[in-house]
Amino acid sequence: MTGRSKVKNWLTDMDGVLWHEGKPIPGAPELVKKWQAEGTEFLVLTNNSIYTPRDLAARLQAGGLDVPESRIYTSALATADFVRSQKPGGTAFVIGEAGLTTAMHEIGYVMTEVDPDYVVLGETRNLSFDALTKAVRLINKGARFIATNPDVTGPSAEGPLPATGAVAALITAATGKDPYIVGKPNPMMFRSAMNKINVHSEDTAMIGDRMDTDIVAGIEAGLHTILVRTGISDDAEIAKYPFRPTEILNSVADLI
Question: Is residue 15 annotated as part of the catalytic site, yes or no?
């Protein structure tokens, strides 16, 4: 139990930790109930920028996991928080779904194709050549390039789908400009999440299933890190990295 006694607040990844293919991972509903009953501060984090927190809360609830909308923090919200802190009331050309466009509207950004401050790229299932062309030209003219997350593929029942990182690579190849990426493994997303619930790194833990995103970002943000084996990581995967989580557990059920 290395240092877990001082943990008061929790950040947790969603997929592979609390949720897998439309169903809660055993122990997840009980853990969330326990946190709520005890008045514990927590946020559920996801790099997925397609859905709004309301949509995600409804999807989770339909599957039997009751997470309030206010407890969900997406890479789209983190991206909106980032651009607002950099340039309040700015403008952006956005490629993405409702999760991202809603987040950008809510911080008072104006969506435009005319000299925007930023080109913001998120997850999208409706990629158009026209939008890509606009993005490339606007970045070449000086718009700053931001991506919600670096994931090159995302999961689906039929197999992997190209995700934000893959489309960002295409834009980078055409412009020579790399995006600033806000989502995990950028510890910025964890710092924004902690600001949102007004907690500090010294008594906050991060639960994740991936060494290369959740755990490395948690370590860099100064958090107590817990790796669960219900998602991506097995022992061989864990051994590949030069860093270690604070704890390794079989699943979130071990935290109840």
Answer: yes
Domain ranges of the chain: 4-47+184-255, 86-181
Name which CATH class applies to 86-181.
alpha beta
Q: Is 146 exposed, middle or buried (0-12, 13-18, 19+ CB in 10 A)?
A: buried
Q: Do domains 4-47+184-255 and 86-181 have the same CATH topology?
A: yes
Count of helices and strands (H, E) across the chain: 9, 15
The pLDDT score that the predictor gives to residue 233 is: 75
Strands 161-162 and 153-154, sheet pairing: antiparallel
**Bind-site residues for substrate:** 184
Kindly state which CATH superfamily the domain 4-47+184-255 is placed in.
Answer: HAD superfamily/HAD-like (3.40.50.1000)
Q: Say what the pLDDT of residue 200 is.
A: 96
Question: Of 13, 81, 117, 151, which residue is the catalytic one?
Answer: 13
Is 13 a known active-site residue?
A: yes
Angle of CA points 136, 105, 186, to nearest 5°:
65
Exactly one of 15, 117, 151, 214 is catalytic; which is it?
A: 15
Pick from 235, 236, 175, 245: which is nearest to 213 by CA?
Answer: 245
Q: Rounded distance, CA 150 to CA 136, Å? A: 18
- What's the pLDDT tens digit per position in 52-76? 999 999 999 999 999 999 999 999 9
H/E run at residue 189: helix 188-197
**What residue ranges of the chain have pLDDT lower than 70?**
1-2
The model's pTM is 0.95
CA distance to 22, 24, 176, 242, per residue, from 58 (Å): 12, 13, 40, 38
Report whether 162 contacts 125 (CB < 8 A). no
Q: Which residues are annotated as a binding site for Mg(2+)?
A: 13, 15, 209
